[in-house]
UniProtKB/TrEMBL annotation:
Protein name in UniProt: SCAN domain-containing protein 3
Taxonomic lineage of the native organism: Eukaryota, Metazoa, Ecdysozoa, Nematoda, Enoplea
Species of origin: Trichinella patagoniensis
PANTHER family named in the record: EPM2A-INTERACTING PROTEIN 1, LOW QUALITY PROTEIN: ZINC FINGER BED DOMAIN-CONTAINING PROTEIN 5-LIKE
Origin: domain of life: Eukaryota
Gene: SCAND3
Length: 257
């Protein structure tokens, strides 16, 4: 798969990296009534671009092959050989991009980050089970190939093995995040009595105040968790709010980190 990725990037650079090729390719795309007329560069320092780059190459695959057949026959054949891998990687990176975009922004809490990342880890198992029975509902690009019976058993085995390794990597990389304990009072501050909750001593007074604050209770009903804890209200519960900030994330679970 890594070799296939390199071929795909090489094909894009062959066209995008030369002004004349880029103009001729745009003309060909217009002639072929393509939705787009340009490929997208892959940028090493911005891995999000990789997903966009691959999906655009999938969208313009036939025009790309047609163009390379005239300017670089060897590269054209290499791209044709890794077509299935390209379509799989484009599907996978689109999922990475979706997660990454949802993790962006200063209002994302460690609780939301944990939900997204651990949730995606669980989804990988789901993706594997669907591929194992040749169900491509979660891989729209591969699904188009399967309609033409172009996905071989060998390719399928490669993709399933890749997902297994990815799942293992997620478990190792986010082991601390998965074992992190999020206090109930952070998620539901108005449903838990201070005396019955496992709240550290320095926060107990603030939790009592929060529980009695009608304005805060109304705000909680109409705001997301991150909006509630970051809201600059008249009565600021500074210590409690610090518990939800990504920079202090592990304070949520001192016993597990």
């Amino acid at each position: 798969l890594h070799a296939a990725l390199k071929v795909c990037i090489k094909a894009v650079n062959k066209i995008k990296g030369q002004p004349l090729n880029s103009r001729l390719f745009a003309t060909l795309c217009e002639k072929n009534d393509e939705t787009f007329n340009q490929l997208l560069f892959h940028t090493e320092v911005r891995w999000l671009s990789r997903g966009d780059c691959l999906q655009r190459l999938v969208d313009l695959y036939h025009s790309t092959v047609e163009f390379l057949a005239d300017v670089d026959q060897t590269l054209c054949e290499e791209l044709k050989k890794c077509k299935n891998h390209l379509f799989y990687l484009a599907d996978l990176y689109s999922k990475f991009n979706e997660i990454q975009k949802r993790l962006q922004g200063k209002d994302v809490t460690i609780i939301q980050a944990r939900t997204l990342l651990i949730g995606f880890q669980a989804k990988i198992g789901l993706f594997k089970s669907f591929l194992a029975r040749r169900d491509f509902k979660y891989f729209s690009n591969l699904q188009k190939l399967e309609e033409g019976a172009d996905v071989s058993d060998r390719d399928l085995e490669i993709y399933i093995n890749h997902l297994e390794k990815l799942e293992e990597d997620f478990k190792i990389r986010f082991e601390d995040l998965e074992s992190m304990t999020v206090p109930d009072w952070i998620i539901a501050p108005f449903d838990i009595e201070t005396g019955n909750a496992n709240i550290e001593f320095s926060l107990q007074e603030e939790h009592v105040e929060i529980s009695a604050d009608l304005e805060a209770k109304l705000l909680f009903k109409h705001k997301s968790l991150s909006e509630f804890w970051s809201n600059p209200r008249k009565c600021d519960f500074i210590k409690a709010k610090e518990q939800t900030e990504p920079g202090n994330a592990w304070r949520l679970a001192p016993e597990t980190h």
